[in-house]
Design goal:
With 445 residues, the chain is of the alpha+beta class. It is built from 14 helices and 18 strands. The protein is elongated and about 85 Å long.
């Protein structure tokens, strides 16, 4: 591969401490496949097509490739999980079965083999979530890039595709700026709107819409929530393990999750909240507030009433905040905030609690309600809810039903899953399937 060092010397970096940016020059005037987007879906498709000796060009609008991949999992890169395919797709909701052909080609085990072949061994320390052994997303990106370079795939950074060129219902190439790039097939792997500072935007949806695709409304997913109440801000150093969080709406399906919960300055975060946010952010489009029930202590109202009544009968003179923390296992900050929500002074001795106070406190300890009024926005969103509607895409090949030779993969499509490696697995699998299908179409061509 010939690299123009005179022009791109400042951007060609393969240091393990840098996210690499690649720019190469091809003498070919016609590409077999142009991939728009250099995230995990786009890079995987490039590798599949490159191994099939296709002439591949990857266009990345940002200055560097893989910036969102580097940030995934807090830099630890939760790649996939060990759930069987049927349970995996169920986590994506009613549209999850769309993913099955892609998962049949590159499921969890096959993805781990693919990465091992690239020099990235993986493990599942909790038996479920799969990470690189070194827990470094940079290792994954470096391995993908090294294979792309080895295969001679051309990657141009700082190139924004402005249009997909179509003639008589068939792809003919891509327009980038004032340059038309001919190609037999095009793959949209642009990702979604999350993390705009790392390149997230609506460009892929806009390109698909110009090709006649419908779009499902997009909302931030996996995003912290904002609540009206102020007391969570006083508990932000405390994480609640195994919290149960639910949304009840009259006549509507109950939304519920269990997992670690983190209090923030203005609301709630943590895995259980990030998962539920996918369901809650669309509701905030039509509702000013969403009531949220939280079970933070793992004990029922009756359990707490019996424990508090017993402590009072034993003439316990300890302040309720200290008793809750030492005897009840409640975090120190919550041991102050929760009695306040029950209108019980946290410094009141247990012996002085009335039956009414014990009942009120027991109910709050078992279940407390907060009011969601907003979310942290796209800047904090890990995934996008919504995207290109699936009805216009063939699940077997991920080729457009609207335009021949146009393929779509990853987050640009209207599919999103919870925390735990679901979304990265979909990105890799869909990129692999789309790359394979594009090559097959070109050969049939």
């Amino acid at each position: 591969m010939r690299v123009r060092r005179d022009v791109f010397a400042e951007t060609v970096r393969f240091s393990p401490r840098c996210a690499p940016a690649i720019d190469t020059v091809s003498s070919l005037s016609m590409f077999d496949l142009i991939i728009i987007g250099a995230g995990p879906a786009g890079l995987t498709a490039a590798i599949v097509a490159g191994r099939a000796r296709a002439r591949v060009l990857v266009l990345e609008s940002g200055p560097r490739i893989g910036r969102k991949l580097l940030a995934s999992g807090g830099g630890r890169c939760n790649l996939t999980n060990t759930l069987p395919a049927d349970e995996f797709v169920a986590r994506f909701g009613r549209q999850g079965r769309f993913m099955l052909p892609s998962l049949e080609e590159l499921g969890s085990a096959a993805l781990r083999d693919f990465l091992a072949e690239l020099g990235v061994p993986t493990h599942a320390p909790d038996g479920r979530r799969v990470f690189p052994v070194d827990h470094r997303s940079r290792s994954v990106l470096d391995a993908l890039v090294s294979e792309v370079v080895r295969l001679g795939v051309e990657v141009r950074t700082g190139y924004r595709a402005t249009d997909v060129l179509v003639a008589e219902g068939t792809v003919t190439g891509v327009r980038a700026g004032d340059e038309d790039l001919p190609s037999q097939a095009v793959l949209l792997a642009t990702g979604g709107c999350g993390y705009p500072a790392l390149g997230g935007d609506r460009s892929g949806q806009e390109l698909a819409a110009r090709c006649g695709h419908g779009l499902a409304s997009s909302h931030p997913g996996m995003v912290p929530l904002v609540v009206r109440e102020s007391w969570p801000g006083r508990c932000r150093r405390h994480t609640v393990g195994g919290a149960v969080v639910r949304v009840r709406r009259p006549g509507k399906r109950r939304i519920e999750g269990r997992g670690d919960l983190i209090f923030t300055r203005v609301g709630l975060a943590g895995p259980v909240i990030l998962d539920l946010a996918r369901e809650i952010t669309p509701l905030l489009e039509t509702a000013d507030e969403i009531p949220l029930e939280l079970e933070l202590t793992g004990r029922s109202t009756d359990d707490w009433r019996a424990a508090l009544t017993g402590a009072r009968q034993n003439r316990c003179r300890t302040a309720i905040r200290d008793w809750l923390h030492r005897e009840g296992g409640v975090g120190a900050s919550l041991a102050i905030a929760l009695p306040e929500q029950a209108e019980v002074p946290p410094d009141r001795p247990v012996i002085d609690l009335s039956n009414r106070a014990i009942s009120a406190l027991s109910e709050v300890l078992a279940r407390v309600t907060l009011t969601v009024t907003g979310h942290a926005g796209w800047s904090a969103a890990m995934v996008m809810r919504g995207g290109v509607r699936l009805k216009d895409v063939r699940p077997e090949t991920l080729e457009s039903r609207r335009v021949s030779g146009l393929f779509l993969a990853g987050e640009v499509l209207d599919l999103d899953g919870p925390c735990g490696g679901f979304n990265l697995q979909w990105a890799f699998a869909s990129g692999h399937r789309a790359g394979s299908a594009a090559v097959a179409r070109i050969r049939e061509g």
